Amino acid sequence: MIDFSIPADLAAERDRVRQFVIDKIVPYERDPRVTSHGPDDELRQELVELARAEKLLTVQAPVELGGLGLTHVEQAVLYEAAGWSTLGPVAMNCAAPDEGNMFLLSKVADARQIDRYLMPVITGHQRSVFAMTEPGGAGSDPGQLATTATFDGENFTVNGRKWLITGANGAKTWIIMARLEANPHLPEGPTLFLTEGDAVPDSASAGPSVVTQAAASGPDAPAGGIVIERTMNTMDRNYVGGHGVVRFENLTLPRESVLGETGQALRYAQLRLAPARLTHCMRWLGAAERAQSIAVEHARTRTAFGKPIGEHEGVSFLLADNEIALHQCRLTIWHACWLMDNGHKARHESSIAKSSVSEELFKVADRCVQVLGGIGISDETVVEMIFRDMRAFRLYDGPTEVHKWAIGRHVLRG
Ligand SMILES: Cc1cc2nc3c(=O)[nH]c(=O)nc-3n(C[C@H](O)[C@H](O)[C@H](O)COP(=O)(O)OP(=O)(O)OC[C@H]3O[C@@H](n4cnc5c(N)ncnc54)[C@H](O)[C@@H]3O)c2cc1C
């Protein structure tokens, strides 16, 4: 039976999340600790403690790891509510990249790795990164991975350079993708490594900041170096730590640092990507609704040519197009989630969702800017920030064109 109703307990939790975000989190949106490189770690910790006090922290985690073990559809309902403010998911510890990393680690990490690397992220005490994209080519096409790992039978040595690595500055749990070169001990190919880093605070003037090896300890502590060259200046500012350019310089890792099996990184990345691209859709849906609510209020109260602007058909059609898009996006997300909850990989449907939702929500944000007139491009409201931040959504976790390319191949295969 197809059922679109939201159970009463889930609806109550959704309302609680929405109210929490409006009452406790929205007031932080103008906090100076929301920097051009995203909220800083001090602010993040403060927000996390607010969510913890309300028992709203990391609710998506599996029950055995302390969460509520939400289904994908349940996540869709709650993340949409959390997304009302871009700081909502940060507070509730369901923002990227931690959310996707937690999902991946809960599926692939062994018991020791869960204890050491995943639990501190789940409890909100530590942040994580997923380091895959490279300036040399590995982006949409991870097959071009140029970061290498060699293995001498005891230790791995990783060398290479990455960019656009979200949260690199300040993260402690590092998932690094590197190509394991041929060796007599282990299967070669793209491999995920899990290690600990302890980055020093970013300082624009201080030049490259090196992950301090001294602070890392234990069997997986890197003996070589992770160098954060810089934090990139980007259009968006909703991700904690911004996006880093990172270099691995003879980073030495023990055998236990392999996540899962060697040579399987691309398979694990896919495992992470399908749900992760949907959770982006869920959070941005909440943000787009916020933008629409501001535009609607403006259309009701701002007058032009003798009546509220919303009564001019041109403006009401913009709002109507938004309403249609928001509804269609929600249904598209729910359907892909429902498939995953019913045991399907939903790769095709999650590609459809990611490409269409990112494009449509960006148009929603753009129309909201238009309805607001001149103030739409100012920071008098959060609409400007939502519009700017949402631009990147059409690129990460698969640019629209790449998803369409995959959808096209699927269609042609019949
Ligand atoms: C805000 C943000 C955060 C990010 N965070 C991370 C992170 O934490 N970790 C990480 O590893 N990476 C991260 N990334 C990188 C992201 O995964 C890549 O940007 C994305 O995979 C696209 O790769 P690229 O940037 O190298 O673009 P490219 O792959 O070079 O693509 C450039 C253009 O070519 C198009 N194109 C490519 N292939 C095809 C095709 N087959 N058909 C049609 N068009 C095609 C693309 O659509 C795009 O328009 C982040 C990116 C952004 C913007």
Major sheet summary line: 8 strands, mixed
Order of H and E elements: HEEHHHHHEEEEEEEEHEEHHHH
Based on secondary structure, the structural category is alpha+beta
Mean pLDDT: 93
The count of DSSP E runs of length 2 or more, i.e. the number of strands, is 12
Number of helices: 11
Beta-strand residue percentage: 15-25%
Bound molecules: flavin-adenine dinucleotide
Question: Quick one: overall form?
Answer: globular
Low-confidence parts, pLDDT < 50 over ≥5 residues?
A: 200-210, 212-217
Query: Roughly how many Å is the radius of gyration?
Result: 22 Å
User: Helical content, roughly?
Assistant: 40-55%
State the distance separating the first and last CA atoms: 27 Å
Please explain how this structure is put together.
The protein is an alpha+beta fold. It has 11 helices and 12 strands. The strands form 3 sheets. Strands 3, 4, 5, 6, 7, 8, 9 and 10 form an 8-stranded mixed β-sheet that branches. Strands 1-2 form a two-stranded antiparallel sheet. Strand 11 and strand 12 (307-308) form a beta hairpin. Mean pLDDT is 93; it is low at 200-210 and 212-217. Bound molecules: flavin-adenine dinucleotide. The site of flavin-adenine dinucleotide has 20 residues, from strand 3, strand 5 and helix 11. Residues 97, 130-133, 139-141, 164-166, 236, 243, 392, 395-396, 399, 401-402, 405 line the site of flavin-adenine dinucleotide.
